[in-house]
Amino acid sequence: MSESVVLDPVDLQILCLLQNDARTTYRDLAAQAGVAPSTCLDRVARLRRSGVILGHQLRLDPAKLGRGLEALLSVQVRPHRRELIGPFVERMRALPESRALFHLTGPDDYLVHVAVTGTADLQRLVIDEFTSQREVARVETRLIFQQWDCGPLLP
Question: pTM of this prediction?
Answer without folding.
Answer: 0.83
